[in-house]
Amino acid sequence: MSRRILLHTCCAPCSLYPFRKLLEKGFSVTGFFYNHNIHPYQEYRRRLDAVHDFAGQKSLEMIYRDEYALEKFLAAVAGNPTERCAYCYFSRLDATAEKAAELGFDAFTSSLLYSRYQNHDMIIHSAKRAAERHGIDFYYEDFRPGWQEGIRESKEMGLYRQQYCGCIYSEKERYLQKG
Fold first, then answer.
1. Contact at 8 Å (CB) between 51 and 12?
2. CB contact at 8 A, 136 and 146
3. Cβ density class 85-123: b for 16+ within 10 Å, e for less
4. Which residues, 6 or more positions from 170, have their beta carbon under 8 angstroms from its beta carbon?
5. In the chain, where are the structural domains located?
6. What does pTM read for this prediction?
7. CATH class for domain 4-175?
8. What is the number of H-type helices and E-type strands within the chain?
């Protein structure tokens, strides 16, 4: 019997490579979409719709925690926006670990581990904290070697490809000139 793993799915393009690698390693994969702080709401919907499309094309069973909680995110990080990524990673990975434990999965992981633009060490630290808190295994794999492959496949599948991390701060940084 294969091990059941819950894959936190930050977005469709970043989930393609991890999903395939986990299947190749013999896992039974279920996706979990929980990305409560994506801004603006239209962007949140585009990413959610793309995950529905990805899941349908790949026959990936998904669990959706469809919450748009911009106010909660801002309340948590507005006093110190430089710490926003730590809050963002932990809140999403903690919810994933909680759901994985609740549903009897063997482990959880995240497609965040695919991106070259995310803070890899901070993601691992957050995931380990969440795993310990909920008594479930965190499966670590560095999915970044599949970066180009994931980009190519997402384009071939016609999936929406976002241009920034997702939070209001990263959207601002996207448009400001860095000096």
1. yes
2. no
3. bbbbbbbbbbbbbbbbbeeebbbbbbbbbbbeebebeeb
4. 164
5. 4-175
6. 0.94
7. alpha beta
8. 7, 5
Task: State the Cα–Cα distance between residues 21 and 23, nearest whole angstrom.
Answer: 5
Phi, psi of 62 (to 5 degrees): -125, 150
Angstrom distance (rounded) from CA 38 to CA 21: 26
Q: What is the pLDDT along the chain (179 residues), one digit of tens a residue?
A: 689 999 999 999 999 999 999 999 999 999 999 999 898 999 999 999 999 999 999 999 999 999 999 899 989 988 988 898 899 999 999 999 999 999 999 999 999 999 999 999 999 999 999 999 999 999 999 999 999 999 999 999 998 888 778 887 887 777 786 55
User: Which residue, among 29, 40, 37, has the nearest Cα to 10 in the 3D structure?
Assistant: 37
**Six token digits for residue 126:** 């957050």
Cα distance between residue 170 and residue 14, in whole Å: 17
* Tokens representing residue 114 in the block: 């695919």
Task: Tell me which H or E stretch contains 160.
Answer: none
- DSSP β-ladder status, 28-33 and 61-64: parallel
